[in-house]
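ingest -> validate -> predict -> emit
validate: passed (alphabet ok, no gaps, 71 aa)
predict: started
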Amino acid sequence: AARRRPSDRESLLRAAAPQTSLARGFSLTTDGSGALVRTVAQVSPGASVTTRVADGHFESVVRTTRRQGDG
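emit:
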């Protein structure tokens, strides 16, 4: 049986999948309510966050926050 070649659309979907980004070394961090953390303003010292990586996840407690350019 001949192998079907993935379409451009399938390749794009695979490349955009979160798991593909995680496999490249990126991570996704969520706050206590499960919302994706996109900015330091979303968390404060003492907040619990969960970080998802390619092979699982881990929980952390925020010690400090610093906005880019604040030193």
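Strands lie at 28-30, 48-53, 56-61.
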